[in-house]
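User: Design a sequence. Structure:
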């Protein structure tokens, strides 16, 4: 019956509002039957305990960290279903506190967490990640599996995760990267494999990762690289291969990496590089080869990387590094953010290092200048040369501060640098300095005219070495002091 004075349409609206309010109250008061709230586990014997930030109420937790105790938990354990009590979790981490406490990926949990963005497991005993383990997790953006004893990554282990951007698999026992492990991951930008046992990279192992920017394979057992190893990585910008077992780098090894800007090859056993090893890396800016076994560098090695502005060749066994080696990138090393490190090699103080005098005065980078000013080489000459060298050290270097920066405003300018590189290169400053031997000299404290030119490299400098007179020494001093206002000659002709 229609209420007196109340229009029918208004009555219908009131009934609808009352029904909606009743439904809201019903949902609010509803308690999930027979389901444990994983944020409020009171049983001390439970194999899993979780801490939820901010709130422990049903379906209100967004960040949860769980610890696995008490000798392990099975796939069939009903506790996994309890994660339905917190279906709004966005960040979930498992830390295993008992050896063997977790030997599988708890995929049952993932089916309840459709808003999950960050997922991690640490310290488990998971031996293998099977195919399609993480298939179709559309919301996940970052996954971390560190120190889990993982040995095998199956094909399609990471499949169809459209928003995954970072995947970390550090400190496991992975031995091989197989084709199609990573499939349909269009957003993946960073992939980390630091400290595994990887010795084999199958052809095309990364071929589907077209948008990957960073790949870390450091601290593994990789002894061979082929250009097919990097198929598909056309957008990669940073590749870390430090502390592997590489010995030989062949031509076009990295030619698929068209956009690579940073290549780290330190702490390997590299003793041979082909002339065209780095061909194709036209955008490469940083190349680090420290702590290898290089004795010589092939002519034209840097022709394919003319954009290089940072070069680290410290602690090899190099005996020569001429201006011809440096010519393709010499002008880049004058720039504000550049650097070159050559310490810890087997260089004699010969005239083929005369280019260091010139670069020291032309470089705007404080790192270049500092590196060259501290560069040590072996000065093996006739003992009668000692008096000439002593003369320069006293009258030219000490009394006149030959290498002091005259314009103090330059210091402020140079110190305001902002390297675009990662900071690994700066770790060299933490290394202990090598003890100076009797015949070790600071190169820049030896004037060019005192640098000997042995017969075997005479063609490099196109000059015959003679001992300078005192007048010649004075002329050289004037040359250096006036270097800022006069254009240098090519050091090959000095």
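Assistant: Done.
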């Amino acid at each position: 019956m229609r209420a007196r004075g109340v229009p029918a349409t208004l009555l219908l609206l009131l009934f609808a509002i009352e029904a909606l309010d009743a439904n809201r109250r019903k949902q609010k008061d509803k308690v999930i039957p027979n389901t444990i709230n994983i944020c409020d586990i009171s049983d001390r014997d439970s194999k899993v305990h979780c801490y939820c930030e901010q709130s422990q109420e049903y379906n209100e937790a967004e960040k949860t960290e769980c610890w696995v105790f008490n000798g392990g938990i099975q796939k069939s354990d009903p506790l996994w279903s309890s994660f339905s009590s917190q279906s709004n979790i966005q960040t979930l981490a498992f830390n295993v506190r008992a050896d063997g406490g977790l030997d599988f990926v708890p995929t049952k949990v993932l089916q309840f967490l459709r808003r999950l963005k960050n997922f991690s497991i640490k310290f488990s005993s998971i031996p293998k990640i099977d195919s399609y383990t993480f298939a179709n997790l559309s919301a996940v953006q970052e996954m971390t599996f560190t120190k889990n004893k993982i040995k095998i990554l199956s094909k399609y282990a990471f499949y169809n995760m459209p928003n995954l951007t970072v995947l970390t698999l550090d400190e496991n026992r992975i031995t091989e990267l197989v084709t199609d492990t990573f499939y349909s991951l269009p957003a993946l930008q960073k992939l980390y494999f630091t400290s595994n046992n990887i010795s084999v990279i199958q052809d095309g192992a990364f071929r589907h990762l077209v948008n990957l920017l960073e790949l870390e394979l450091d601290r593994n057992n990789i002894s061979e690289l082929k250009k097919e190893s990097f198929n598909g990585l056309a957008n990669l910008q940073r590749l870390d291969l430090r502390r592997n077992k590489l010995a030989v780098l062949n031509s076009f090894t990295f030619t698929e990496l068209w956009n690579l800007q940073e290549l780290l090859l330190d702490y390997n056993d590299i003793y041979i590089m082909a002339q065209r090893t780095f061909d194709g890396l036209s955008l490469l800016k940083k190349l680090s080869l420290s702590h290898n076994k290089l004795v010589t560098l092939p002519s034209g090695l840097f022709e394919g990387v003319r954009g290089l502005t940072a070069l680290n060749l410290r602690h090899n066994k190099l005996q020569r590094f001429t201006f011809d080696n440096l010519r393709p990138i010499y002008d880049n090393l004058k720039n504000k953010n550049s650097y070159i490190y050559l310490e810890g090699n087997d260089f004699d103080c010969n005239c083929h290092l005369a280019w260091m005098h010139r670069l020291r005065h032309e470089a705007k980078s404080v790192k270049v200048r500092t590196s060259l000013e501290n560069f040590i080489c072996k000065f093996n000459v006739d003992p009668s040369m000692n008096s000439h060298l002593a003369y320069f050290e006293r009258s030219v270097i000490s009394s006149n501060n030959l290498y002091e920066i005259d314009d103090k405003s330059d210091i402020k300018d140079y110190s305001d640098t902002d390297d675009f590189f990662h900071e690994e290169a700066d770790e060299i400053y933490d290394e202990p300095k090598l003890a100076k031997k009797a015949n070790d000299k600071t190169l820049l404290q030896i004037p060019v005219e005192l640098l000997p030119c042995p017969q075997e490299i005479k063609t490099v400098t196109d000059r015959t070495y003679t001992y300078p007179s005192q007048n010649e020494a004075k002329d050289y001093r004037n040359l250096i002091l006036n270097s800022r206002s006069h254009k240098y000659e090519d050091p090959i002709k000095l």
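Residues 26-33, 390-426, 457-477, 479-494 have pLDDT under 50 and may be disordered. The radius of gyration is 32 Å.
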